[in-house]
Amino acid sequence: MIRVSEDIRRFYHDVSEFYKERFSLELHEILDIEYYTPTSLDVSDYHSHDEYWQLWYVLDGTAQVNIAGIVLDATPGDIFLIKPGTCHTIHTYARTTCHMFDVKAVLTRLDGMGHHLKGGDHIRLHDGSGEAQFLVKGILNEIAAKRSAWKSVVENQVTELFIWVVRKVHERNQVLSARTGRIGFHSAVCAQVIEYLEGRYHEDLKLSDVAEHVHLSPSYLSGVFKKVTGRTVIEYLTKLRLERAKHLLMYSELEVSEIAAAVGYRNHSYFDRVFRSKLDISPSDYRATGHEVNRSIE
């Protein structure tokens, strides 16, 4: 059973009333997919869609997605909106299942909101509040029940899901802008850095590599990034790596040494020390108790 809070009910009503006349789409396809690879890493075809926007919502499990050459972990609550013409694929780990909601649609009107979706090949969000999950579950329930006019209802619900993504992108941009005086430049730099780190956290990265990518000196980049995000570049990279490691420990059967390498630590012992220092528990013990503990990375 899905429990719906009053806040989410109000959110649902606000979306319907305020945005529906300004945003419309033509629904192409909806899939409820469960990927599973018994023995080795599976790679689906690397492909693109010239007309369709594709939205992925990870319901359960874990996988890797490759979007325009950027490799990202996909974990429960992650949302990916892939723009038309962008090449992408999905990888699943050995003996690992990933349950994903997949919808393709042509966006036919974006009055007053299209600028939020400009730039880059994709948009990535995390549904920490459960608002998007509520919408996804509603769509799947409507499809399963097939009551009268269900196709029209589903199209409206998918529209609301896309609108939720646009709103969250707008809110995220506002937060980044509010935390710096040089709004456009600083926010753009930090967005580039975060995208770079998320796509390459598994590599042996140094601050100088990141600074070179955005054409700034390491010291200047460090000051800008900390002012906007509250963390240094290396602190952000460490947090990103350990969050990915936590998910792999819980949702995959990879060895701890394999997980260390997958998140950018070539030295297993060093990975163990960093993990312990940030979470006060070893990777092996976290795996054994991971579903029962909730340890945040500072």
Structure commentary:
The chain is α+β, with helices and mostly antiparallel strands. It has ten helices and nine strands. The chain has helices at 6-19, 131-145, 150-178, 183-200, 207-213, 218-229, 233-251, 256-262, 268-279, 283-289; strands spanning 23-37, 42-43, 53-61, 63-67, 70-74, 78-82, 88-92, 96-110, 122-126. It has a five-stranded antiparallel sheet. It has a four-stranded antiparallel sheet with strand order 2-7-4-5. β4 and β5 form a beta hairpin. α2 runs antiparallel to α3, α3 (150-178) crosses α4 and α7 (233-251) packs across α10. The chain is globular and about 60 Å long. The two termini are 34 Å apart. The mean pLDDT is 78.
